[in-house]
Model the fold of this input.
Amino acid sequence: MIRLLVFLILAAIILALTYFRFKQFPLLKRMIISGGGLAAAAVALLMQGTYAWYIVALALVGMSFLAAFAFAKIITKERQEKLRIVEERREQKLQQTLKKSAALEKAPEIETDEKPMSFGMQSIDAEREEITRG
Done:
């Protein structure tokens, strides 16, 4: 009975710490990590009095694997969602560039007969004299 009481006290402390201390991680990930650890500890606590130590250790490992599997599934879903968003953005960007290129092709070209003025320094021919003031 005392073990169960100590377990409940530790569980409350761990859940409070994971909720308030690790704000940079999403709530679901925090609760899966802390809940998986608490579930493994609870199973081990309940099995400790009736089963051998190696079966309890095996249950701990099994519950830890179960929590890790749930965590991996969530990460996989997040990655797929990010990839879907990236693909949608890529498609939108492609559609925008196609619309812009189609609009540029439809615009009539302006023909000019004038020679374009060049800006900047121009080279001086060797035969031509420089005009200097003075």
Q: What stands out?
A: The CA atoms of residues 56 and 108 lie 80 Å apart. Helices lie at 2-21, 27-47, 53-106. Residues 53-106 form the longest helix (54 residues). Residues 52-103 form one domain.
